[in-house]
Design goal:
243 residues; alpha+beta; Chloramphenicol Acetyltransferase; seven-stranded mixed sheet; two-stranded antiparallel sheet; 8 helices; binds oxidized coenzyme A; Dihydrolipoamide acetyltransferase component of pyruvate dehydrogenase complex
């Protein structure tokens, strides 16, 4: 019988389970209160401004919308274009494609000075490569703490790519006086069904848009609609401009 194959439980005496030793808990770190001051040598008042803006942002009544987007075609397209951009000395990530899909687009950047949102102006007249080049410029200036006022003002819509720091979903907070913001999660290979009901490896990204409640905006939902244009075989130059 089955029960004979299972070894009998050891008798109490034979057990050698060590007794739990209770030691007092010692906290090695202490809470520290840091005043929000002019600590940044690059932007005097930078931290104060960041706290002020984020406090104003949190007063806005937000409405959130979230969905998943199949980026399989876009991932393929970037693979093709990346070496071409490299020849021109431009690093081509996914961001320029997302930025291109809307107007005067701010990009939330994680820098040594904190969170900053420079924007790429008039994306509608720029090619994806021009946007990538401008994004490269903003990133270098951002990490050196050398962004100017013109780069930091005039944005109309912001994109926050939390995928670069590993996040799949986010609830982005509107940057006033803008009325909407989009968050982009990490792109993951996941099983999905194609039109024939076959499972394929899809490149899935979750996107979320927050906009001021009761306001209809042209945000991420429109951008998402514009991306499938790639699938319709529209020539790259028509959609992204010449490079
Ligand atoms: N999923 C998968 N891979 C991604 C990705 C995503 N969502 N986003 C970027 N990547 C890839 C890029 O394509 C690139 O890959 P390759 O080396 O193959 O080209 C690599 O990750 C590094 O990208 P990057 O960070 O250099 O460039 P980027 O243009 O994608 O992002 C920036 C720039 C400024 C948005 C980013 O550096 C950053 O600061 N993100 C954080 C934003 C943040 O903190 N938001 C939260 C607060 S506000 O709501």
């Amino acid at each position: 019988p089955k029960s004979q194959t299972v070894p009998a439980a050891p008798k109490d005496k034979a057990r050698k389970i060590p007794l739990p030793v209770s030691r007092p808990i010692v906290f090695s770190g202490k809470d520290k209160t840091e005043p929000v001051t002019e600590v940044s040598k690059y932007f005097p008042g930078f931290q104060k401004a960041m706290v002020k803006t984020m406090s104003a942002a949190l007063k806005i009544p937000h409405f959130g919308y979230c969905d998943e987007i199949d980026l399989t075609q876009l991932v393929r397209l970037r693979e093709e274009l990346k070496p071409l951009a490299e020849i021109r000395g431009v690093k081509l990530s996914f961001m320029p494609f997302f930025i291109k899909a809307s107007h005067n687009i701010g990009v939330a950047m994680d820098t040594g000075q904190g969170l900053i949102v420079p924007n790429v102006k008039n994306v509608q007249v720029c090619s994806v490569f021009e946007i990538a080049s401008e994004l490269n410029r903003l990133q270098s200036l951002g990490s050196a703490g050398q962004l100017g006022t013109s780069d930091l003002t005039g944005g109309t819509f912001t994109l926050s790519n939390i995928g670069t720091i590993g996040g799949t979903y986010a609830k982005p907070v509107i940057l006033p006086p803008e009325v909407a913001i989009g968050a982009l999660g990490k792109i993951q290979v996941l099983p999905r069904f194609n039109g024939k009901g076959e499972v394929f490896q899809a490149q899935i990204m979750n996107g979320q848009e927050s906009h001021i409640r009761f306001l209809v905006t042209t945000g991420l939902d429109q951008e998402i609609e514009s991306i499938p244009k790639l699938k319709e075989g529209i020539p790259i130059t028509e959609y992204f401009g010449s490079f």
